[in-house]
Amino acid sequence: MPGTPDEPDFSGLGGGEDQQADDIVREVVGWYNAQIVTERRAPVPDDERIDALKAGRAAALADQERLATAGPAEEARIASVYAAWLRDLKES
What we know:
mainly alpha
């Protein structure tokens, strides 16, 4: 039972759908950051790839900002889109 000495009650801390969406978007941003660093450190960096990675990161950061004011339906949509995007990025 939540709130008992054996199991603290964290229900008031939030962390629902909005936190999940934020975590997924943050993970996508992290993927882009890692790819940008890797590409910049390449013997011959591909400037076009770096620009494309920066654009992807910028889009994710804009969506992350939008989450601050998004309603539950928009949060769920962003979480779904970014979960699929993250899967695709990790498979590439």
